[in-house]
Amino acid sequence: RQSSQLVVAKNAKVRQVAGAIAARIGMDQHQRCHIDCKGREPLYAALKACCVANEFVPEAQKGKLLAVHLEEVSLDPENWVSRLHVQLKAAPENSNPGRFITIGPETNMGLLVGLISMEFQRTGAVALTTMGLHAVNKALKALALADTYLRKESKLNNGVLAAVVQAETF
Fold this sequence. Notes:
Elements: E1 5-8, H1 14-27, E2 32-37, H2 40-53, E3 64-76, E4 79-90, E5 100-102, H3 109-123, E6 127-129, H4 133-152, E7 163-164
Parallel strand pairs: 1-2, 5-6
Antiparallel strand pairs: 2-4, 3-4, 3-7
Helix pairs in contact: 1-2, 2-4, 3-4
């Protein structure tokens, strides 16, 4: 039996990782898998793979998308990895929030976390737009910090703040 855990390396091929994600989600009764990444590049590749893996969702599961939740995990006191928890979930009802938060590599992290938290409490959804490795990494870290804050304030009803990753082309 295949493990639901994946490890993404710096030189990972996005479509291969996407296929591995789809296979693991298809075999898991809870439709989930976990992806460990050490560094920005593997994390970015894993997120891009989640976008692609949405294309592999079986016809019977249409209307569902892959949701991701970031957690920083200590393997030992000096060795940390970013772990993406990925699960197939029903597409959010509020998939078109009125406001998009644009994130760049120079965006202030504290202000971003506050804005994400406020918008989530106000509408129940947050739409973020990013472009490139550094902005995507910042968005993920901000979501993780906002999740911590919202859980501490008991605003998530025992849930987690998760993201549905989508790519747009022009």
